Recover the amino acids of this structure.
């Protein structure tokens, strides 16, 4: 009986992690998966039913959450995430949602990185709501090298970045989605847990070397002034508050001032039964996008 199946709402379904998660969960016969999109036209390629949900339009929240057991909660690259997250948690509580899996950011609880701290405020708000939760704290996405904040990278062999020789911890968005899927399938096991997701620590020069070896073309890393990142993001219309945090983050990474910035975690196999994506594998999988 389809009515006995748990119903899961995936927000951010038109984005990187939410999209990958929908593809994973669509194959699960014991679940009913619904994708949330503020622009349903962008969600036509998803193989699950789509509902309208715009965090900034309060009237869309209750209808989208009706009958939902669990949600995957994604917000975009904006300080509006604070009020948006509050709105959806409030609506989820009213709708009787039982479990929330939240896509957060890296860092320990005492992090000084601004936007990572915003994600932790959201975590605390979810906990305060009384809804059962799983918090995901992914490190930096490997996909950032393909594009960031909506801006597509076209490297032509030059990997531009802003953190000098510093090593940082990386994770493939598909691995983040895989852990989200596990937490949504078995909330009984994953309730109350916080998972740090970062599986390979590399500097950009090391990544350029890996790309060169795997793809057989020359790649070089070029560290640029963080001010250039900020100017480009603002010119592209990105949220200034979020991007100022990211800008400061690059400065602090280069100074190796962020505790745990190159930490890697051994939890992926235990959580999913698979090995996490390595940079070499990521290069192979995205060869067409990297090649020039
Ligand atoms: N990049 C990194 O290295 C990194 C590392 C750790 C954590 N994070 C966190 O990851 C999150 C972003 O994940 P992502 O890369 O998968 O995002 P993404 O690809 O930019 O997708 C964002 C999703 O949120 C949706 N969205 C935005 N505003 C909305 C609104 N008002 N109502 C409903 N939906 C809305 C977007 O819909 P549209 O398609 O309509 O825009 C899209 O589906 C951020 O919270 C960021 O802090 C990023």
């Amino acid at each position: 009986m389809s009515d006995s199946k748990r119903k899961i709402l995936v927000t951010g379904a038109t984005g990187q992690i939410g999209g990958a998660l929908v593809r994973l969960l669509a194959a699960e016969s014991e679940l009913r998966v619904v994708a949330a999109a503020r622009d349903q036209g962008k969600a036509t390629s998803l193989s699950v039913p789509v509902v309208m949900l715009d965090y900034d339009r309060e009237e869309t929240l209750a209808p989208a959450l009706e009958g939902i057991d669990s949600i995957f909660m994604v917000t975009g690259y904006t300080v509006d995430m604070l009020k948006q997250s509050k709105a959806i948690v409030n609506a989820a509580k009213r709708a009787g949602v039982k479990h929330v899996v939240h896509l957060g950011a890296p860092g320990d609880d005492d992090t000084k990185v601004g936007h990572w701290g915003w994600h932790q405020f959201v975590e605390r708000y979810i906990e305060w709501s009384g809804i059962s939760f799983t918090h995901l704290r992914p490190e930096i996405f490997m996909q950032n090298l393909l594009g960031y904040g909506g801006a597509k990278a076209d490297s032509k062999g030059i990997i531009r970045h802003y953190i000098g020789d510093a090593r940082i911890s990386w994770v493939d968005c598909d691995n983040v989605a895989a852990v989200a899927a596990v937490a949504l399938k078995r909330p009984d096991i994953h309730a109350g847990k916080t998972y740090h997701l970062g599986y390979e620590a590399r500097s950009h020069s090391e990544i350029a070397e890996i790309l060169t070896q795997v793809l057989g073309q020359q790649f070089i890393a070029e560290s640029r002034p963080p001010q250039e990142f900020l100017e480009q993001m603002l010119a592209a219309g990105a949220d200034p508050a979020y991007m100022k945090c990211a800008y400061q983050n690059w400065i602090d990474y280069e100074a190796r001032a962020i505790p745990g910035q190159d930490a890697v975690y051994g939890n992926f196999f235990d959580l999913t039964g698979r090995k996490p994506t390595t940079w070499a594998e990521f290069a192979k999988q995205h060869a067409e996008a990297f090649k020039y």
